[in-house]
Design brief:
Blueprint lengths: L5 E4 L8 H23 L3 H18 L5 H13 L5 H16 L11 H10 L3 E5 L4 H9 L12 E3 L9 H11 L6 E5 L2 H9 L3 E5 L11 E3 L10
Parallel strand pairs: 1-2, 1-4, 2-3, 4-5, 5-6
């Protein structure tokens, strides 16, 4: 039993199947990105992340790419699951089209919605911290297979606060929430992320779903249904 004010949670492998990301979201992005850039590259919300991506490519290879080559590079970064903020921003925009036209719905494990309801009823605030953009996070929960879960969460954080495997990122989140780190419980399947959160002073639980290897140094739970809090 824990007494905490805030539960911060990862998405991929925690609230949501890893397979949804790799088998649904990534393939959709790779199929759509060339036509998407051809039609929308001039829009400000697309042009700015494209500029950032081009800057990184120049820094790494001293190359200036055409629009088609940029699309190819974004596909390659997606296949490598690169956590580049420009890629994440563009992915979120492309996925929004998919959610809105009904191409797919956001996967959420079945025990997650009742757990969210239970935790909120216990007086806890809930938040998300994922490498995907804030928009991508919100879309997944807004268009989830269980309906609109977006209102369950008070805050959404992406790597704009810092990399997920660095303690300073979790300190930044605590500062934003105006909470001491030890008032926050972080849930993730990734040991390195949990280590960083613990170093920042947060409580941690590793979610060990099928295919996840349990680490040491953190409490573990097979799913959200095992996690209860006192009121």
């Amino acid at each position: 039993m824990f007494k905490r004010q805030y539960i911060l949670m990862d998405i991929e492998g925690t609230t949501t199947s890893v397979a949804f990301v790799y088998d649904t979201l990534f393939p959709y992005f790779k199929r759509q990105i060339h036509d998407f850039l051809r039609d929308r590259a001039s829009l400000l919300l697309v042009a700015e992340p494209l500029r950032l991506a081009q800057n990184t490519i120049w820094e790494e290879s001293a190359m200036t790419l055409s629009l088609g080559e940029l699309a190819d590079q974004l596909v390659a970064w997606t296949e490598a699951d690169r956590k580049h903020p420009a890629l994440k921003a563009i992915q979120g925009i492309v996925w929004r089209n998919g959610y809105e036209n009904g191409a797919f719905r956001g996967h959420v494990y079945e025990e997650v919605p009742p757990a969210l309801t239970r935790w909120k009823a216990a007086g806890l605030e809930l938040g998300i911290y994922s490498s995907g953009s804030v928009e991508a996070q919100q879309l997944l929960f807004r268009y989830s297979i269980f309906g609109d879960l977006k209102p369950c969460f008070s805050n959404y954080f992406d790597t704009g606060v810092g990399p997920k495997r660095e303690a300073n990122s979790y300190q930044n989140i605590a500062k934003t929430l105006q909470l001491p780190p030890d008032a926050i419980l972080f849930l993730s399947d990734v040991v390195e992320e949990l280590n960083a959160a613990a170093t920042a002073g947060m409580e941690t639980i590793q979610i060990v779903r099928p295919g996840t290897v349990a680490g040491t140094g953190h409490l573990v739970a097979e799913d959200f249904g095992e996690i209860f809090f006192s009121t």
